[in-house]
Amino acid sequence: SAEKVPVPKWEDLTLAQNYPTVQINDMEFSGQNAKLTKQTVGRELADVTATGFIGEAEKKADATAYAVIGIDERCAAAIKFDGSEEYYVYINSYYLPSTLGEFTDALSLEENIEFGAASYSYFENGAYKNIEFNDLDDSVIWDMLLSDRDAKSIDNYDSHDFTAEMTVGVSIPLLGYENIALSVTEDGYLITNILNTGKAFFIGKEKTEKFTDYVIDNCTGYEIVYVSDGEEIPE
């Protein structure tokens, strides 16, 4: 029988969870359960009304939207609710950059992104294998995957069937992201779920192959084996 998961009570949630959506300049932003320090908050953008629901009942709260320093105002904002001293990160999932360079600049990725392990999955003798590489140099990721600033983004991500060949874990602590994905596909795309929706940039098959080969040939790989209680064990 399926276990019932208790629904958290309204009063136990943060303001960003209670009021998950806000309109800023005709764009819809959604709350991340992450707070910003005052030092990272920029100029005031607008007085806004944040919206949430208790069951069917719509709830509204007055708030002020501010820029996040170093982040394009179309991508994210800091929301401060009336009567609260806290600043919550709200992001625009619908933001679509035209090029990889625009995306990099919009989020100041050079300052804000942190790279984790790379993982590579493949089938061998009918079994699914997953290898993790922990010693990848950040500069290699920048040189091989993020240097083509003119790489165009795909405007209809969901109509493509992207399959990640190798994935690098990425975190953007400023925006409340921890261990999400930057991946390459066999057919030459760089794909990511930064800002909650899929984005793909065509960087070319030669680059994605070269990156995958580089990691496999130059980094130390550990096979991740899953045992029955759900714990991961590196071999």
Description:
The structure is a single chain. The chain is α+β, with helices and mostly antiparallel strands and 235 residues long. Helices cover 16% and strands 44% of the residues. It is built from five helices and 14 strands. The protein has helices at residues 15-18, 100-106, 109-112, 138-145, 205-218, and strands at 21-24, 27-36, 41-54, 57-68, 76-81, 87-91, 114-124, 127-133, 164-172, 177-185, 189-192, 199-202, 221-226, 232-234. The strands form two sheets. It has an eight-stranded antiparallel β-sheet with strand order 12-11-10-9-7-8-13-14, with helices on one face. Strands 1-2-6-5-4-3 form a six-stranded antiparallel beta barrel. The longest helix has 14 residues, at 205-218. It is globular. The mean pLDDT is 93.
